[in-house]
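In the lab's daily routine, each protein ends up as an entry in a very long ledger. A line of letters takes care of the sequence, but it says nothing directly about the fold. The three-dimensional part falls to structure tokens, numbers that each stand for a local backbone shape. The outcome of that step, for a single protein, is printed below.
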Amino acid sequence: MKMIMRWFGTGYDSVTLKQIRQVPGVRGVAATLYGKRPGEVWEKEAILAMKREVEDAGLSIAAIESVNIHDTIKTGAPERDRYIDNYITTLERLGEAGLNLVCYNFMTIFDWTRSDLAKLREDGATAMSYDQKIIDKIDPDDMSTAMNAQSNGYALAGWEPERLGHLKELFALYQDIDEEKLFANLKYFLERIMPVCGKYNIKMAMHPDDPSWSVFGLPRIQTRKEQLLRLVKLVDHPCNGITLCTGSLGTNPKNDIPDIILALKGHIHFAHIRNLRHNGPGDFEECAHLSADGSLDMYALIKALYDIGFDGPIRPDHGRAIWDEVSMPGYGLYDRALGATYLNGLWEAVEKNSR
């Protein structure tokens, strides 16, 4: 296991590589060229410059998060092959740079969705939250504006205004897409990219949908154990796997995450570990990583990963805003640093208890 943190890059992130390097046990980052739009080819020089910057800070790039997928690929539109070709070119350049783990998702129109990016908690911290009753009252056309209004001035991952400024066109593009068509388009995409992934040993790690149910009537295909297993069987290749995100899967209390981990042995390439608290059906808030602060048993999650022999990168996921820090919602330094040290402590305890 390698503990890392997500870093959005100089000019986009309030957290510096120097600060990340000082978090005990953290030796790498999940990085990206954050200004790139879905479907755009990544320049070789930009990839190498990003890698040099991280390594000069005494860290390594353990994962690329994310290389976003163009909507024409998800919908199977006639021009999808052009964008898949662009994706393959980017993968080739990442492989040539020695970067061989890519986190991605196949969510429709909206990436992760929340009703509040700064819900006040009883300890005075704020955290992202979701309440289906609030979402049901929101016009989808207003969703992007509402999210970005709470962003503290940062560009939110997956909520690019250039793309979401055309919501009516996007909804029209997806109007005939159901789960089966989305799975078929995913299979087509994976079959196209697996040869280059195999050549460079690039592990593709699909991120689950967040939350784990349909939002605004859009299809979701990575919400539960059966769908995750279907993904890894869709294209039988060692590079085809998942990012195990406890927060996304944990939005549905019916998901037995330790059981999911055991069922996916050998297919988990990356792990995002965070906690959340269920307040009622369709109502949850993010919280500290500590088991007692939320609804997930963090020790059981770490133990399941250890028991399957997981040796990939783990990162603490969304954190609270604490100690008056102002950052991209969910991605401040302080609470994620606490999360990283807590998760490292759990891993050490599991490892020692297993001897």
